[in-house]
Amino acid sequence: MTITIVYISLSGNTESFVKRLSNYLKEQQQIDTKLINIKELNHTTFAVCEPFVAMLPTYLEGGNGVDNGDIEILTTPLGDFIAAHDNYKHCYGIVGSGNRNFNHQFCLTAKQYAKRFNFPVLDEFELRGTSSDIERIANKLITAQKAFRV
């Protein structure tokens, strides 16, 4: 089994989490990962034909996420990639990260993508995540990928 993770990281928190998750899957579950870092693609897209999970941080434009401040900024290349080539049809879910200090805005971008593309929010974590986040999310990814049908 290989788990494909399509992600974007701006401050390095999401990338740190993805790399630690990848190491955990390899060492503890004997599962390989294929990592696609959207930031490195410079707005190019290609078709992803295998099932994948998306991961992204939350960057929104000000406000409180309820009345205003729910407009995604900086992570839109991930949305463009998921939309291109009907890649969303192969995405079995999304994992969001954020800062709980932002209350309603915590992981709001992941929730918006889930609604936009009709796939579930599998989980969320704060900042760089903890070792218990890694273990919990790894198990959810394994279960979700096994259950996914294109």
Automatic annotation (TrEMBL):
InterPro entries: Flavodoxin/NO_synth (IPR008254), Flavoprotein-like_sf (IPR029039), RNR_NrdI (IPR004465). Residues 3-150 form the Flavodoxin-like domain. Pfam families: Flavodoxin_NdrI. PANTHER family: PROTEIN NRDI (PTHR37297:SF1). This is Putative NrdI-like protein. It comes from Streptococcus sciuri. The gene is nrdI.
